[in-house]
Amino acid sequence: MRIEDAPIRIIASDASWIDPVAVEQLRQTAALEGIDAIVGLPDLHAGRGIAVGAAFWSRSHVHPHLVGSDIGCGMALWETETPLRKFRLDAADRKLRGLEEPWEGDHAACLAKAGLPASLMGDALGSIGGGNHFAEMLCIDSVCDDEAFASLGLDTARVHLMIHSGSRGLGAAILDEQLARRNVSPLKAGDDACAAYLARHDEAIGWAVLNREIIARRFFERLGMKGRRLLDICHNSVTADRGGWLHRKGAAPADHGPIVIPGSRGDLTYLVRPRPEHAEEALQSLAHGAGRKWSRSEARDKLRRRFTVAELERTRLGSRVICEDRELIYEEAPQAYKDIRQVVADLDRAGLITIVAALRPLITYKTRRA
DNA sequence: ATGTAC
C-alpha cells in the first residue's frame, strides 16, 4: 500500500518569487510519516533541509526537527512612553551597547518568576544572539485601520521597540538530545517520549519569551525609557491544534491576536490583525517576515562589491543599523530579503489579515562585537 | 539558529 503524500498549499501570488529549492523541501517533508497537511507562506525560503516560512500539521505525530533548533524564536513589540519628538538618534546610538553580552541580572529569580526551573540557567538569558536576531526602535509610519489601531490603545506619536530573538543554546540542546536519541524519526503523540519532548519544548518557549522580556528591559535601561508589551508571538513551535499537532517553522500564529511582520532592517514592519474566515486553509499561520531572497553566502558575494559597510549602516529610510560584525551586516542587508510589501499584499489578498499600521525603523541593534 | 563543526 502506498500512502499518499500530504497536500501542500502555497499562499503566494504569481508576483512573488518562491525558490524552487524551498518547494522541493516542502515535498520532502510531505512524504514524512504522519504529515497530513502543509502550508507555505509568502515568505517561504529554503532552509537547512526544512523550508522556512511553513506550517506542518499532523494528526498523529510530533516531529522535533520540523520545529528546528531555535524553539520559541519570535517577535515581541512594546509601546514606549517616549514620543518621537523626544527621541534622539545620536544619543540612542551612543548608549546602545552590550545587548549581545551576558546579562548581569538575577537569572534564577527571573526564571522562578516565569515558572521555569533554575536548571535552565545559562549565560545567554537576556542576550539577542546572532543571525537575523535584532532589537529595533521604530515609529508609526502610517495607520491603515484607524478603528483597529484605536482598539489596541495605540498612540501614533510614541516610539516602539521590537525584539526578534529565541531560546539561544537551550532550544538547540533540546533538538540535539532528540537527534542523538532517535535521529529524525517522529514521536508518536501520547507516547512518554513525546510528552517528554513537549515538556522540554514548552520550557524553551517560556525561556524565549522571558529572554525577549529581559532584552527589552536592558534596552530600556540603556535609554532611560519605559514601555508596555503589546504582543509576543513565537514563529518556531509545535502546538496542539484541531486534535493533532501543528508545527510552525518560521510561521507566525493566526490565533494569538495581532502580530508584527517585520521587513528587512531597512524596510517597514507591518502590524496586522489575523482574519479568521480563511485561517484554517492556512493552518492558522501567517508569514513571519520578508523571507530571504539570497542565501548568506550569495548576499556577502553580491553586496560586498556594491556597498561599503558604512553605506549599509544607514538605510534608505534614514534609520541606522548597529552591526559591527562585517560579515553579518552583508548577510542581513535589506537587499538579501524579499519585498515585505509583496509578502503582506499576498496575505491580504488571500483574506488572511487586516493591515493595522506600518512601522518605520529608527535604529536597529544587532551587535557591537566585531 | 547555535556557550557552533571544520
Automatic annotation (TrEMBL):
<keyword id="KW-0464">Manganese</keyword>
<protein>
    <recommendedName>
        <fullName>3'-phosphate/5'-hydroxy nucleic acid ligase</fullName>
        <ecNumber>6.5.1.8</ecNumber>
    </recommendedName>
</protein>
<dbReference type="InterPro" id="IPR017510">
    <property type="entry name" value="RtcB2"/>
</dbReference>
<keyword id="KW-0479">Metal-binding</keyword>
<keyword id="KW-0547">Nucleotide-binding</keyword>
<dbReference type="GO" id="GO:0016874">
    <property type="term" value="F:ligase activity"/>
</dbReference>
<keyword id="KW-0692">RNA repair</keyword>
<dbReference type="InterPro" id="IPR001233">
    <property type="entry name" value="RtcB"/>
</dbReference>
<keyword id="KW-0342">GTP-binding</keyword>
<dbReference type="Pfam" id="PF01139">
    <property type="entry name" value="RtcB"/>
</dbReference>
<dbReference type="InterPro" id="IPR036025">
    <property type="entry name" value="RtcB-like_sf"/>
</dbReference>
<keyword id="KW-0436">Ligase</keyword>
